[in-house]
Amino acid sequence: MLLNRGMGMLDKELEGTMVSTGKEKKGSAAKKTGKRVPVRKSVTVQAPAPGKARAVKPNRRSEETITSILQATEEVVLRSGADRISILDVCKLAGVSRGTFYRYFSSQEDLLDTFSRHKRDNFHQVLMNTIGTVEEPEARLNALISFIDDYLEQSRARRLLVVAPDYALGFFRRIFHDSILRFQDTLDIVFDDWDAKLGVKLDRELICEMIIRYVLSEVLVPENTGRRLLPARVKRLVASLTMGSTSRTRR
Question: What is the CATH number of the domain that holds 196?
């Protein structure tokens, strides 16, 4: 019995020694370094707010997904119009889930805004790729006229104007001034050549604006007899504008 009591007391003493030793070590470590031991806090990761697309790091797969969604958007818009566009229809046609869609676009408005910028940038990129490599001024002008002719032949702008007139007109207004600048850059060597030959500084902005207005007029009021005379008409338009610029300058 005394033995049992003695063993119990010994256990308690050992237990107290272990606890005090642990505290001493902890305190001695703090005294040793002279620094407070940092306490870890739990970090809560907040989900993105509803209605906002998450920022997705661009990669090839993401770009392909976005391209598929934008291509599907064009088909849906041309089929039913921009006012009645269905995100579900876009997802089905693009072969993506709604969750994937909302990784890249926050809403229908965001989708249509991105689609507009995509069409504008694509138009200007194709323009530069097609014409920017042509070094001879006259050949570049002819390349521009051919580009315009092909655009009017293959473009879905007329269909867009029928099914979504407000959206189409807004799109044309949106790209108008930017297109003037892009055309000026594309035709820089043509204008330099004309300035040198005529001995005057032509109004490049006016000439490009009139060319673009001509293209838009063909979209709004297409030529019933076809566009076989389009190249000749554009050249006549340019010639008239250059002659007009020359007359105004010389006066």
Answer: 1.10.357
What is the distance between the alpha carbons of residues 108 and 203, in angstroms, rounded to a whole number?
41
Of residues 160, 155, 181, the one with CA closest to residue 170: 160
Interatomic CA distance for residues 218 and 225, integer angstroms: 12
* CA 65-69-73 angle, 5° bins: 170
Tell which residue, 117, 146, 144, has the closest CA to residue 128.
Answer: 144
Within this chain, do residues 65 and 185 fall inside the same structural domain, yes or no? no
Domain boundary, last residue among 61, 80, 106: 106
Within 13 Å, how many C-alpha atoms sit on residue 155's CB side? 22
Residue-wise pLDDT for 119-167, tens only, equals 888 888 888 888 888 999 989 988 888 888 888 777 777 888 888 888 8
Q: For residue 23, is it within any domain?
A: no
Average pLDDT along the chain: 75
Domain that holds residue 67: 52-106
Domain count within the chain? 2
Q: Are residues 79 and 141 in the same domain?
A: no
Note the pLDDT of residue 25: 43
pLDDT of residue 69: 96
Domain final residue pick, 60, 85, 106: 106
pLDDT in tens, 163-209: 888 888 888 888 899 999 999 999 999 999 988 988 888 889 988 99
**Residue 178's closest CA among 219, 212, 201?**
212
45: left (phi over 0), alpha (psi -120 to 50) or beta: beta
